[in-house]
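User: Hello, can you help with two protein structures?

Assistant: Certainly.
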Amino acid sequence: MILRLIVRSFIDTAGPVGSRTLAKHYPLGLSPASIRNTMSDLEELGYLRHPYTSAGRMPTQLGYRAFVDELMDMPELTVPEKRLLKAKLDQLMGDTDELFRQSSRLLGRMSNLFGVVLSPRLSTGVLERLEVVPLSSSRVMIVISVRSGLVKTIIFEMEVTFKRRDLDRIVAILNERLSGLRLEEIRRSCARRTRDLDDDRTGIVRLILSESAMLFSEPAEGRLSHGGAQQLLTQPEFQETEDVRRLIELIENEGYIVQLFEEQHTEPSAALGQAVVSIGSENSDEKAEKYSIVTAQYQVGETVGTVGILGPMRMDYERVVALVENMAMLLNNPFLDTPS
């Protein structure tokens, strides 16, 4: 009970919590001396630490972990907040880019932390159709359509000398052999599946084979939407210039943030939409050991994306978990829902 109150008080005030504060503000039925003894025991066990400038205590990483795993209440947003989230997202159904941008900004604004939405991993999607569109005598566009409405387009330089009927024939054969397969499977096996098409006059098969890693993988950038960096920088943990510099370097590195958030789900321990909380050194990289990251996965058709929030270890875990889980639930299959 005392550990729970200290964690909550420290989250609210960002200041060390003393025994007199607990005795004065909470009906514990314990004397300040008994509370001090308990706090000393918790410190010996590694749940609290004692700043040398203060008689109060503050949670350690272990203390936050115990709070998240065993002591915090069931996370829940208020009914008006749930309605606000749903109403905002309903307005954006059909515009996936804007949906992800606004979702991350909502997470940042409602948590005063750094909100992140990663668009679904394209390589986990199932190919619905492949199209080849000649743009000029020297350029073609290949369009990869994935079930659930995701589309990837890439423009290639190549000499366009083929006839339309030859192009239609080879594209039809490719769709017959590749449609219904996951993109990551196509990337691994397209050479084997097209080895008998050496009579292709268009050069499209050769192009697809040579560029398969680019065509059937995640894009190098563009999956990350984020919001709330300004709110995060107002937190007391970022008063020192060096702390601000390190945080900015971290959140401006798109590839790093994508990897950091997706690595929270390398083990299939959490169900879809269930929050995973990573605290301090539990994060996959030492650059992030001063932060906590809360993530959940959402599903669009057969592809999976990630939503999450990054902030200092002193974050309101109950509220952040509730925000992340509600956002993941609302983003599940948005292209299959109709706005209410």
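That covers the first. Now for the second protein you mentioned:
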Amino acid sequence: MYKILRKIWKKFWTPILHNSIIQWTLALILAGITWFIFLTSKHKFTNTNSLKKYRKNPVVFVFFHGRCAMLSPIIKSAKVKSYCVASRHKDGRMMARLQRLFGLRAIYGSTSDGAVAVLREGVRIMRDKKVSMCVPVDGPSGPSLHLQDGALYFARMTGAPIVPCCFSCSRPIYMDRWDKFMIPKLFGSISVNIGEPIYVDSKLHGEEFEKKRIEIEEIMIEQLRRMDQEFNLPEIPRNLNATDYKKQRRAKK
């Protein structure tokens, strides 16, 4: 019975969520909520002054999917011109419209869908327009806290440094998803950290390239863990993808 109701629900909502007007309306609402949460929270910024360096010099901002909610107003307030990589899935297009309201233009694709086209377009844009690129590194469906190759290719082919970005908060709400998407509650504390730039040699290939990927992944995870420990938050699991997470949920029911 549950499966039948779920199919009916999907058939009802799918065409609505694909509608451009509906998506823009939802994006406006979400943008308003994001700003309201951000402006009513106490802020602790670490190294965000370095953002001023990147207003004219392109960089590759990297972050995990679950920690992107508060990064948009940070990039916007810093007046950094940037593009973002977004999935072609309806959720990705919805997020792309939301990011557009914060001044971030989208390039559509992911590690599993149109990856080569995204890399070529992103590199061209970074070189021609001298803008930065924002990349959610753990793919549209995981594995969680896993750095995919895309960000390293952007950095290797353009010479722009990779800059890890993360936020944490004192009163989080975690969405029931594989990435444990974090949304701060109102009137809490938000901590934002912009990491140090990491350069990827244009000659890196094979094992050396993989070593660099692992090195940056560990830096990003350490950044997230350190910030969560500040608020005594539970540890976010690694290597969990959307499919396995759904199976786990069904098994518990």
